[in-house]
Write a structure and sequence with these properties.
Mean pLDDT: 78
Largest sheet: none
CATH superfamily of the largest domain: lambda repressor-like DNA-binding domains
Structural class: mainly alpha
Number of helices: 9
CATH architecture of the largest domain: Orthogonal Bundle
Helix content: 55-70%
Order of helices and strands: HHHHHHHHH
CATH class of the largest domain: Mainly Alpha
CATH topology of the largest domain: 434 Repressor (Amino-terminal Domain)
Low-confidence stretches: none
Number of strands: 0
Number of domains: 2
Radius of gyration: 18 Å
Length: 154
């Protein structure tokens, strides 16, 4: 979803993708490639600089990194130095926060304007699909116990 966040913030600020790339000191197609999803893990220092140029505070930039790059903590078949940078950055952010501040609450995501309501719904659907696939892998007894607890809670 970093692509939509960048596009939304860039258009709100009135930057062209090439102009924003130049302001960050990157190739003039860099922002465009992020927005189209060709670059999944942008060079971290440049991404942070771009988000700062787009008006995000340091705390909001940290929230974007924690929320948008969750998959970098999962094992990967290919080693990418930038994935390692994101892993380290996430660990640093977590280390300086209290445990209750690790994630963003849904209202926080919308209130800072990082996601529109539609993109937030898309993110929730994607998360639900992922969880459903993982839950289906559980043993039947575990699934029955989980289902019983969910019904009792609701």
């Amino acid at each position: 979803m970093i692509d939509k966040i960048v596009r939304d913030l860039r258009t709100k600020k009135g930057f062209s993708s090439g102009g924003l790339s130049a302001k960050v000191g990157m190739n003039n197609t860099w922002v465009s490639q992020i927005e189209t999803g060709k670059i999944k893990h942008p060079y971290l220092p440049a991404l942070k600089k771009m988000l700062h140029v787009l008006g995000l505070t340091e705390e909001e930039i940290e929230k974007v990194i924690l929320e948008e790059f969750v998959e970098v903590d999962k094992p990967s078949n290919s080693h990418s130095p930038n994935r390692t940078d994101y892993r380290l950055e996430r660990k640093l952010i977590r280390a300086k926060r209290k445990p209750s501040e690790y994630g963003m609450k849904n209202a926080d995501i919308l209130s800072v304007g990082l996601l529109t309501e539609d993109t937030f719904k898309e993110k929730c659907e994607k998360d639900a699909d992922y969880l459903f696939k993982e839950i289906k892998k559980l043993p039947k007894l575990t699934l029955n116990t989980l289902l019983t607890r969910l019904v009792d809670e609701l």
